[in-house]
Amino acid sequence: MNMMKTAMLIAAMTALFMGIGYMIGGSGGMMIALVIALAMNAFSYWNSDKMVLRMYNAVEVDRANAPEYYGIVESLAERANLPMPKVYLIKNDQPNAFATGRNPENAAVAATTGLLERMSREEVAGVMAHELAHIQHRDTLTMTITATLAGAISMLGNFAFFFGGSRDNNNPFGFIGVLAAMIVAPLAAMIVQMAISRTREYSADRRGAEICGNPEWLASALGKLAAAAGRTVNVQAERNPATAHMFIINPLNGQRADNLFSTHPDTENRIRALMAMAAEMDRPARMETQAHERPASSPEPVEAPLSRPAKTGSSGIPKTGQTRWGRDGGGGKKGPWG
Fold first, then answer.
1. Cα gap 272→249, rounded to integer Å
2. 86: which strand partners?
3. For residues 172 and 229, what is the distance between their CA atoms, to the nearest angstrom?
C-alpha cells in the first residue's frame, strides 16, 4: 500500500513539475521539466537519503565512538525485528531526529547532539523508537523523495524570472504565467509536503511506543522537543525547509495547531494520544490487581493481563535514575561522541 502511495506521489509531483514548466516556458518548458523530473525521481530513489544526511553534515557513528547512543538503537532495532540501520549524529543544539532510506535494509537514523545532551536515556529511546517505526512502516522513502522534489519545485519557481516571460520561449501566459509560477511553485511545494499525511506521525508514535515499551517515554520527549524547538534556531533546517517534515518535531518554528500548512500534528495532541495509550496498557494491570483483592467466592471472570515491560527493564532499555551520560536529562556531562 505504501509503495502505491509513493508511486502516486511521484506521479503527482512529476505532473506538478511539468505544469510549472509549462507556465514558465510553454510546451518546451514542459518537456524540459519532464526530463528534469524523471532524472530527479531516479536520483531521489537511490541517493536522496545520502543527500539529506549531507545537508545536515551528519556523521556516521558506531559502537566504538558512541556506545550508548548506538546501543539504544541496536536494542530497539532488535526488539522491532528490523535490520540494524546506520546511525548518524548531527552537531546541532536543537534537539531533533529523523530517519531516512529507501527501505529497512538501507535505512539510517540521525539524532542531533542537542537531543542526546538534553534528553534522558528513556526519552532518547522513545524518540529513536519513533524513527524506527517510520522505517518499519516504510515511510522513509516517501519522506526523502518528497524532501528532494519539494526543494526542486521551489527552486524551479525561483528560476522563473531568468527563464520565463520572454517572447521566444512559447510561454502562452507571458509575464502573468511567470509571476503565477513564482507564487504557485513554493506554495505547491508546501502542499506536496502535506501529502506526507500527518497520520503517519500518529502511527509512528504508537508503534514507537510499542517498540520501546512505554508511551510515556516518547510523550515526555515530545514535550521537551517542542519547547526547545521554539527556542533554538536550526540554521541547517532553515536553509533546507523542504526537509522539515522528516523530523520528529518541526525544526523551523514552534507551530502548534493542526492546520492545512502544518507539516506536523499538534504536539499536545500527540502527547494526549500517547498518554491515552499508556492508560490502556495500565488498565489490564489494574484489573489483575482488583482480581487478586476480590473475595475468593466472587464468580466474575477476570481478563488476562497484557504485559507491559516498560518499567521493568524487559524492553531492553532499563529504567535507571540516571542516563548513561551520567545525568537525568537536564544537561550536564556531554555524550559519548567526544
1. 16
2. 108
3. 45
| CA pair distance 124, 118, nearest whole angstrom | 9
Q: What pTM value is reported for the model?
A: 0.73
pLDDT tens for each residue of 20-47: 777 776 777 778 777 877 787 777 778 8
**At 320, phi and psi to the nearest 5?**
-130, 165
Split at pLDDT 50, 70, 90, the class of 15 is confident
Residue pLDDT, tens place only, 120-162:
999 999 999 999 999 999 888 877 777 777 767 766 666 655 5
Look up cell 517542542; give the residue: 226
**8-state DSSP, 65:** T
Residues with catalytic function: 131
Q: Write out the H or E segment, with its range, that includes residue 321.
A: none
CB 246 within 8 A of CB 135: no
Upper half-sphere CA count for residue 337 (Cβ side, 13 Å): 21
Q: Report whether 77 contacts 317 (CB < 8 A).
A: no
- What the block records as the C-alpha cell of 37 is 523530473
